[in-house]
């Protein structure tokens, strides 16, 4: 049954989605770094039990990333900003890691991973801010190294409910991929990673005994999902166009500042 509160949550999630879509197209992130904190705050306000808020936020975030990152990746592909060989090597590991991360999320203490993630993100931001050298074009490492990196990225990202752009973009740029192509490739990989994590969270939600809100599929909460994607998919066009117009170093600084904000917020949770 759809109530007035459910409709209000849907509208608020549309606003969240507009922000998510722009960031996805501009920075190659799936939007989980916005969706998870937003849902963690919003869901209890709308009467959802705090005991299931975090897994619902993670599952719903990953579902939005599947759609938003797919739209962003398609736009970047049309602009020539996807490194096909890198994506082919990363995707198998990301799919596996996405599923593993969801499983680990059911076992790890809820307060441990966000703080660890915050430290990693801040280290990435510091590296990007201090290292201002232009990237050096060089051959990518062997496919199994990229696949192993994809597995690690997928596991950590799924545990945090994100699409992995925060890890994938600096990793590919460090490996010699241009910033524009690193962003586009991160969008493509993030869609696959999020799909594996989403399916696992749905399955885990069906197994647990705590009552879930109406209109849920496992831990996936449909009103929040539909609200976010109704605007996020369209706003990826704006972000992708900005990514092409802005110079590489400016994008890099924007991305680093974004990581500082996210990392600090994780540590302060």
Percentage of β-strand residues:
under 5%
Largest sheet: 2 strands, antiparallel
Radius of gyration from CA coordinates: 17 Å
Number of strands: 2
Low-pLDDT regions: none
Shape: globular
> Biggest sheet: strands side by side, in what order?
1-2
- First and last CA, distance: 34 Å
Q: Helical residue percent? A: over 70%
Q: Averaged pLDDT, please?
A: 82
Query: Would you list the SSEs in sequence order as H and E?
Result: HHHHHHHHEEHH
Number of helices: 10
Structural class from helices and strands? mainly alpha
What layout of secondary structure does this protein have?
Layout (H helix, E strand, L loop, with lengths): L3 H24 L4 H14 L4 H29 L5 H22 L6 H19 L12 H18 L4 H10 L4 H29 L8 E2 L2 E2 H24 L2 H20 L2
Helix pairs in contact: 1-2, 1-3, 1-9, 2-3, 3-8, 3-9, 4-6, 4-8, 5-10, 6-8, 7-8
Features:
269 residues; mainly alpha; 78% helix; 1% strand
Task: Describe the overall structure.
- With 269 residues, the protein is an all-alpha fold.
- It has helices spanning 4-27, 32-45, 50-78, 84-105, 112-130, 143-160, 165-174, 179-207, 222-245, 248-267, and strands at residues 216-217, 220-221.
- Helix content is 78%, strand content 1%.
- Helix 1 runs antiparallel to helix 2 (32-45), helix 2 packs antiparallel against helix 3 (50-78) and helix 3 (50-78) runs parallel beside helix 9 (222-245).
- It is globular, with a radius of gyration of 17 Å.
- The chain starts with a helix and ends with a helix.
- The model has no long low-confidence stretch (mean pLDDT 82).
How would you summarize what this structure contains?
The protein has 269 residues and is an all-alpha fold. The chain is built from 10 helices and 2 strands; from the N terminus they run ααααααααββαα.
